[in-house]
Design goal:
heterodimer; A: 97 residues; 3 helices; 7% strand; flat; B: 484 residues; alpha+beta; 2 domains; 10-stranded mixed β-sheet; 16 helices; 17 strands; 41% helix
């Protein structure tokens, strides 16, 4: 299953990213190289192997339901390019979810 | 069935219930509503690099309890998945949800149709997920974002397309609300968004099996709006099909102001969520022993409780419905009956009347939870006992009830302090009766000439003289005897 320029454009749109033509061609090449590696893995017969979702970590590790103080608001907002008082400010969103 | 004849409505519902945990689903930030924006926020909520989510046990517990209450099968292992989409109220770029391995599968919700029949709506699944933040659009040149709600836990309850009318849809959502509030896992407040409903709506020619094209209706924030929005959408689809058009698969937003649903501004491309297993979270295990323990601790199901109220207390269906609509009301009523002791079974109807009318009226007027109601069940039971043994009349009881409400005092004390004891002594009442008869020769003559309706006038006069304290039975008997 080869990646085409159309796939790159679709994924770029979903990720809200923009690329020029040269970069798109480069991405087609890179992504196909990655998928070639997956094809290599696909050569192994896994018919009797259970799907593995996760490696490591104690299964069922849960946290007790206790609220603890959150970090200071200014710390949490310091990476925001723009804010309006206590709110993050982003370019106007058109369309609803 | 409200759809015009010739068509059948096919409706499936997705209900999101916000869980009442103290902390968020994957971090320890508070879930408190109404705090200053972006103060209950941490690197996990913001999806900052390196932040790792850890699942809240309370979320799993709530989802399992809901599943048990509706007869779902609980998956021993379920997994979280990332639902990828870009929107500013979801800073991570994905919502942690469950996809092909949800925690609960199957189950049924029984609804009571208006005619008294019962219907089973099958459930597809119940899964856990996180809420998104809030974006504020009407703010000039930008969109403003509050991330406090991001990461607050939800369960999504997905039904099969078993619902056949707007009314059934509203009844279904009401039943879900009743169950989640009985379980105490969600406050059930639709107006504030802690319970949200989306509907998948399609129509098909009656008697056919193939499904028509469906639309999704969102933004229905009350039971009434659920009913109205689906009604609107069914009529729109039927009119479209009748005029030879086709239904487009799209999402519509209900606008309660204008009573219409309009399509959401269409996206350039269809949704493509690219679900994949969440690599940051281990699979969720629900050990059999733990599930069994949760099962044993479940409160009585509201429908079973309603049926039991009818049977055990001999109450009419209407009373049983009203009393069990909210768990707090049912608990209050049963406390009153328990306090009545041996008298309980006989006085259940009296207790029901007081709770349904007087107690619920005050609770409604004061917009309080019945748990905060100032008259304890023991006091109400005490008052009902005093009516039963003739100490006070039903009329005086209303006064005693108001006094209990104001002062919080026991009924015996109020009766004592205010001299409200019912007068049953025949000699004393007899004196008043004679006095009233003597002072009203006109009405007496009319009564004796055959106008029996004037008895009411005399009863009223005697009650006025005794400030409502005379035992009405004694007054009636004495008057009938002495007027003739």
């Amino acid at each position: 299953m080869a990646v085409t320029i159309k796939d790159v454009e679709h994924v770029a749109m979903l990720a809200r990213l923009e690329f020029d033509e040269a970069k798109k061609q480069q991405l087609v090449k890179d992504l196909n190289a990655m998928l070639a590696y997956i094809d290599k893995l696909n050569e192994i017969d896994t018919t009797s192997v259970e799907p593995l979702v996760q490696v490591g970590g104690a299964p069922g590790a849960l946290r007790d339901d206790e609220a603890r103080p959150s970090p200071p608001q200014d710390d949490m907002m310091q990476n925001a390019p723009e804010r309006s008082g206590p709110l993050f400010k982003v370019p106007k969103v058109i369309g609803e979810r | 069935m409200t759809a015009p004849s010739g068509f059948e409505a096919v409706i499936g519902l997705e209900v999101h219930a916000q869980l009442r945990t103290a902390s968020k689903a994957f971090c320890g930030c508070s879930t408190r509503f109404g705090d200053e924006p972006n103060t209950n926020v941490c690197p996990v909520c913001l999806g900052l690099p390196g932040a790792l989510p850890v699942l809240n046990r309370g979320v799993v517990e709530s989802a399992v309890r809901m599943g048990l209450a509706v007869g779902s099968s609980i998956a021993p292992t379920s997994i979280f998945a990332r639902k990828n989409y870009f929107y500013p109220d979801l800073p991570k770029g994905y919502q942690i949800s469950q996809y092909d391995e949800p925690i609960c599968r199957g189950g049924t919700v029984e609804i009571d149709l208006d005619g008294g029949a019962r219907r089973q709506v099958r459930l597809t699944r119940i899964h856990m997920e996180e809420d998104a933040g809030k974006s504020i659009h009407d703010a000039g040149d930008g969109t403003l974002v509050d991330v406090n709600r991001s990461g607050v836990p939800l369960i999504e309850i997905v039904s099969e397309p078993d619902v056949r009318s707007p009314r059934e849809a509203a009844l279904y959502v009401q039943k879900i609300r009743q169950i989640v509030t009985y379980l105490g896992i969600c406050d059930g407040n639709m107006e504030e968004g802690s319970l949200r409903c989306d509907a998948n709506v399609s129509v098909r020619p009656a008697g056919t099996a193939a499904l028509g094209t469906k639309t999704e209706v969102k933004n229905m924030n009350s039971f009434r709006n659920v009913e109205r929005a689906i009604e609107f959408e069914l009529n729109r689809q039927i009119a479209l099909l009748r005029s030879g058009g086709t239904v487009l698969q799209e999402t519509l937003l209900w606008d309660a102001e204008s009573n219409t649903a309009h399509p959401m501004r269409s996206k350039e491309e269809a949704d493509d969520y690219r679900y994949f297993p969440e690599p940051d979270l281990v699979p969720v295990t629900a050990a059999e022993a733990w599930v069994a323990q949760l099962r044993s601790e479940l409160p009585e199901h509201p429908t079973l409780r309603r049926d039991r109220f009818e049977k055990t207390y001999g109450l009419p269906r209407y009373d049983a419905d009203v009393l069990t609509a909210e768990r707090g009301t049912a608990d209050y009523f049963e406390s009153v009956v328990r306090e009545l002791g041996a008298l309980g079974a006989d006085s259940a109807k009296a207790a029901s009347n007081w709770v349904m009318t007087d107690v619920l009226r005050v609770v409604g007027e004061r917009r309080i939870d019945i748990a905060e109601f100032s008259v304890p069940p023991s006091s109400l039971a005490g008052m009902i006992r005093l009516i039963g043994n003739g100490t006070i009349s039903g009329k005086i009881a209303k006064e005693v009830f108001s006094a209990m409400l104001e002062t919080g005092e026991r009924p015996e004390r109020i009766i004592d302090e205010r001299g409200l004891l019912q007068l049953s002594d025949e000699t004393a009442i007899g004196k008043v009766v004679d006095d009233v008869i003597a002072r009203n020769p006109g009405p007496l003559a009319t009564y004796r000439s055959g106008n029996a309706q004037l008895l009411g006038f005399f009863v009223g006069e005697v009650m006025k003289q005794t400030k409502g304290k005379a035992n009405p039975q004694v007054v009636n008997a004495l008057l009938k005897q002495r007027l003739t």
